[in-house]
Amino acid sequence: MPSSKPEGMDFEAAEADARIEEAEKKISSHRSLSLKIVKEYNGDPERVLREAADFNLDVSCDLGVFVFKKGDLSCTIQEVGERGWSVSDGAQLTGYAVPQDVLERAVWRPSATPNKGIDRLVGSLIAMGFITVIAAPGGMGKSTMMGAIAIGLSRGEAVVGLNWIVKRKARCLYLQAEDDQDMIHRSFAGIGREHKITDREVEDRMIIMGKETVKEALGVKSLQMIQEDRGQVTLNTRALRRLKALVLQTDTECLFIDPLAVLYGGAKITNEAQNLLIRALDDMSQELGIAVVIVAHTRKGDGAKTVADVKHGGELTDTSRVTAVINPLTKDEVGDWEARGIVDINPRNVVSLTVVKTNLGPDGERAYMEKKSQLIKCADGREEWVGTMIPVLPPSTAQQRADPALWQMLAPKLISRFVTNKNSQFSDISLKDLILELSVEYDPSKVIKDMDDRGWIKTVKEVPQRKRASNQRGEIGRWVAGPNCPNK
Question: Are residues 412 and 379 in the same domain?
Answer without folding.
Answer: no
